[in-house]
Specification:
Elements lengths: L4 H14 L3 E4 L4 H14 L3 E2 L9 E3 L13 E3 L4 H4 L4 E2 L2 H12 L7 E9 L8 E7 L2 H10 L1 E2 L1 H7 L6 E7 L9 E5 L4 E5 L4 H4 L2 H17 L2 E3 L1 E7 L5 E7 L6 H5 L5 H6 L2 E6 L3 E5 L5 E4 L4 E5 L9 H6 L5 E3 L2 E3 L4 E3 L11 E2 L5 E2 L13 E5 L16 E9 L9 E3 L3 H9 L2 E3 L11 E3 L12 H15 L5 E5 L19 H11 L6 E3 L2 E3 L14 H8 L3 H16 L7 H15 L1
Parallel strand pairs: 1-6, 3-19, 4-5, 4-10, 7-9, 9-11, 14-25, 25-29
Antiparallel strand pairs: 2-3, 6-7, 6-8, 10-11, 12-16, 13-14, 13-15, 16-17, 17-25, 18-24, 19-24, 20-21, 20-22, 22-23, 26-29, 27-28, 30-31
Helix pairs in contact: 2-5, 12-13, 12-17, 16-17
The structure holds sulfoacetic acid (SAT) and manganese (II) ion.
Manganese (II) ion (MN) binds next to loops.
Pathway: Carbohydrate biosynthesis; gluconeogenesis
Pfam families: PEPCK_GTP, PEPCK_N
Cofactor: Mn(2+)
């Protein structure tokens, strides 16, 4: 399959360590994948769903203690502790290789090791990179087949000589949480993951490579790996402008990426095209602009809340060749269900734990972080540029999170440097995507807190550096918050398709077609410049959504001081200066 000695030697070494009974090289062919599906069904790893209603679809359940990323057990192992920074768990690489080496020793005895070659990004693109994942899980093989360009094409992209591939090793031998480790060695292009079967911990091309390792590579090679969706917004003249947006996990990236504009926009001819829903790799093109590709090939989306109203494009994407994880299994129809899919929970069903489920019981049937793994090509609004090796030019970068009060619906940064500040102070209420308390506000710069593979202060400096190189060709930077609530805790802004109204203002700003008002935190729309036609929201409510509460922001500034304190002398002086400007503005 490959003659690349770097690959062959490393696989030999890992086989000698893990001692599998058998090694299967994945070529990505239909026949081979079909065999592996049949095998997973025979072992009970997956259940085949109703072929008429959900052709090519399967359901899988993880262990009950293994349903989300485990940030406490995720490590960045660099030779110098300093290089991993204050926001990552660190261990000395030597110590960690030894510790995990002992755990991997003989771990695949009696099992099969699958060698999965995969390409992150369109095959042949200058920005694409190859990874190889060794795993003893057929679930991982089948998910990687959806999430990446997997098989022979990846070997071809790598070539026979290159050593530039990420070495991933995964085993799911034991489900004991105390023995679970998700470990990155950025200096060796290596990822070792053991004793988990949950997506973000084991699909090593995704968060581990495409964000943690890739962010480190991007810093060294002059590009960016970001936790961002990429969408194209087509106007009635047929011009498409591309926007990338960073929100923390489970804050609606998939929904925004697949947005369907409200009726009044559709009538005029506006359309939204999806390039990616989770990760963007960006580089400066020959024309000096910032260009983005989506390194993934599928969507690993949150199931609960996805329905024909909230996100029809996502739901349609899951109707064939999809793997569902930790959702409700409808036994009468052999289909799937989750909270928020529709108002008819199945009566004869198993919950995500595999127990008989009574919808009347008040107990949730699907896990809040249950997921679908769906091929990107299933998406009705997939962009024609999805496979373009050049990527798409980025007009605007949007940051956002869940904030009940502080952040307004939308504001624009004064310039790139201020934009980096806006990204760096991002904060959001936590969700079920990671283990731990839900609903607690935490700082999550650029939505990269759990995903930055090096010192976050240096990461901010890299952003500033990129801005200097981009100069006046830099995308404009914005911040949005769809999650402001009223005194009863209800969301005020309808969100979903109506977010188009905010995107319209963002694009108009980039085109120099919309005005703005200056506030202490940045530029905001004039309320009358947000189109409210057909919405149940009046101008007063909108003004409320755009209001900046100076007292809350003074509190916020204190929180930022404290947060910035962590970074010591790695904090770029430009950001400290931006914080001073914010405080001055608030005290005016
Ligand atoms: O990390 S996952 O890929 O499992 C999902 C997420 O948290 O964004
Ligand atoms: Mn994500």
């Amino acid at each position: 399959m490959t003659n690349n000695k770097n690959v062959l030697n490393w696989v030999d070494e890992m086989v000698a360590l893990c001692k599998p009974d058998k090694v299967v090289w994945i070529d990505g062919s239909k026949e081979q994948l079909e065999e592996i599906r049949a095998l997973s069904v025979s072992t009970g790893e997956m259940v085949k769903l109703n072929e008429e209603k959900l052709p090519g679809c399967y359901i899988h359940r993880t262990a009950e203690n293994d349903v989300a990323r485990v940030e406490g057990r995720t490590f960045i192992c660099t030779r110098n502790k300093e290089d991993a920074g204050p926001t990552n768990n660190w261990e000395d690489p030597k110590v960690m290789y030894e510790k995990l080496g002992a755990m991997f020793d003989g771990v695949m005895k009696g099992r099969t090791m699958y060698v999965i070659p995969y390409c992150m990004g369109p095959v042949g693109s200058k920005l694409s990179k190859v990874g190889v994942e060794l795993t003893d899980s057929t679930y991982v093989v089948l998910n990687m087949a959806i999430m990446t360009r997997m098989g022979q094409a990846a070997w071809d992209h790598l070539g026979d000589e290159s050593n530039d591939f990420v070495r991933g090793l995964h085993s799911k031998a034991d489900i004991d949480e105390e023995k679970r480790y998700i470990v990155h060695f950025p200096e060796d292009n290596t990822i070792w993951s053991i004793n988990s079967g949950y997506g973000g911990n084991v699909l090593l091309g995704k968060k581990c490579f495409a964000l943690r390792i890739a962010s480190f590579q991007g810093k060294n090679e002059g590009w960016m790996a970001e936790h961002m969706l990429i969408l194209g917004l087509e106007n009635p003249q047929g011009e498409v402008k591309y926007v990338t947006a960073a929100f923390p996990s489970a804050c609606g990236k998939t929904n925004l990426a697949m947005l369907i504009p409200p009726e009044i926009y559709q009538q005029k001819g506006y359309k939204v095209w999806t390039v990616g829903d989770d990760i963007a790799w960006m580089r400066i093109g020959d024309d000096g602009r910032l260009w983005a590709i989506n390194p993934e090939n599928g969507f690993f989306g949150v199931a609960p809340g996805t329905n024909m109203k909230s996100n029809p494009n996502a739901l349609i994407s899951t109707q064939k060749d999809t793997i569902f994880t930790n959702v409700v299994h409808n036994l009468d129809e052999n289909t799937v269900w989750w909270e928020g899919l529709d108002k008819n929970p199945p009566k004869n069903a198993l919950d995500w734990k595999g127990n008989k489920w009574d919808p009347e019981s008040g107990v949730k049937g699907a896990h809040p972080n249950s997921r679908f793994t769906a091929p990107a090509i299933n998406c009705p609004c997939i962009s024609s540029e999805f496979d373009n090796p050049e990527g798409v030019p980025v007009t605007a970068i949007v940051f956002g999170g869940r904030r009940a009060k502080t952040a307004p619906l939308v504001y624009q940064a004064r310039d790139w440097e201020h934009g980096v500040f806006v990204g760096s102070i991002m904060a959001s209420e936590t969700t079920a995507a990671a283990t731990g308390a839900v609903g607690v506000v935490r700082r999550d710069p650029m939505a990269m807190l759990p995903f930055c593979g090096y010192h976050m202060g240096d990461y901010f400096a890299h952003w500033l550096e990129m801005g200097k190189k981009l100069g006046d060709k830099a995308p404009k930077i914005f911040n949005v918050n769809w999650f402001r609530t009223d005194d009863e805790g209800h969301f005020i802004w309808p969100g979903f398709g109506d977010n188009m109204r905010v995107l319209e203002w963002i694009i108009n700003r980039c085109d120099g077609k919309a005005d703005a008002v200056e506030t202490p935190i940045g530029y905001e729309p004039k309320p009358e410049d947000i189109n409210l036609e057909g919405l149940d929201i009046d101008l007063e409510t909108l003004k409320g959504l755009l209001s900046v509460d100076v007292d809350l922001w003074k509190e916020e500034a204190k929180g930022i001081h404290e947060f910035y304190g962590k970074f010591g002398d790695h904090l770029p002086k430009e950001l400290a200066h931006q914080l001073e400007i914010l405080e001055e503005n608030l005290n005016k």
